[in-house]
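Mods, move this if it's the wrong board.
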Amino acid sequence: MIKTIEYSQVEKNDIENKYVLVDVRSPKEFSESTIPGAVNVPLFTNEQRELIGTVYVRESIEKAKKIGVEAASKNLPGIYDKINELNKNYKGLVFFCARGGMRSSSVVGFVEALGVRAFKLEKGYKGYRAYINEQLPCTVRDIKFVVIHGNTGVGKTNILKRLEEQGHDILDLEGYANHRGSLLGSVGLGEQNSQKQFESLVYDKLKNRKSNIVFVEGESRRIGKIMIPDYIFDSMKSGEHIKVTADIDLRVKNILADYVQNDNSELIESLNKLRKYISEKNIDKYIGEVSKKNYEYVIRELMIKYYDPMYENNKYDFRLTLEHKDIDETCNVIVDWAKSNLEF
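Not the wrong board. Structure tokens:
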């Protein structure tokens, strides 16, 4: 009989490194969203899964099952090799598919017959998502956010990362979204994470925090295509707000490091998206300057004429305002303020 386990039980044993989660869904499903830390050992390729699904809908369930069995039998030797390696390093393997159905059941039955200590995740990835939707709002309620604000390019993300290096809890929302939050925010980063994956990464980070004081960067409600859930956004709004300023030369330098790649195509594509906010004439001029690699001019212009005026619309009661010159000095000032004013 196949042994099942709920995600809450997996989470409790995670500290002991007892289980590894194995996602048997297709590589495409895995890339769109999975449980953080899970390993993808797909039962079917993307093409096989698509064919099985099409036959299931358009022809018959039995024919789809037959195709599935034939495809799985071809894939089993490779699956066995991967499972065998995982089994050397963990006490138990927890397999999951979309809903805890045939894919995970089949793999668990196969590996159990080979002597592997295996479990099937109750209700699969869907069950995990239900758990996250229940637990994440409760987790956020216990947290006091220290929200770091500042104009584009002041280095807020770098400050967050240094705070984390110093051992403090942070929440890198832009990192989990894989987007920097502005209309140019996807340049050089590739595909954005899905909403589901974003929420999973946020939960995974917050559940492992060391304290209830969490540093986070000030964001609008939307980060690219990602929407920050209301309970997180509202908790950030009611948190403690800090403003960081910086000389425009430092800001230009930071933006150059973040956005300018060897290939200008993404930058030009993003500039074209600004046509509804900035005159056609100016956008054409900026694209021309980018083509000539005159990046500093374009960045400075966009900051002064577009981003800075837009930022001025953000009104908060800042508990601390400081000028950022040296990252360690800035972090020390922020931490000293937090220790003096909050319960660490």
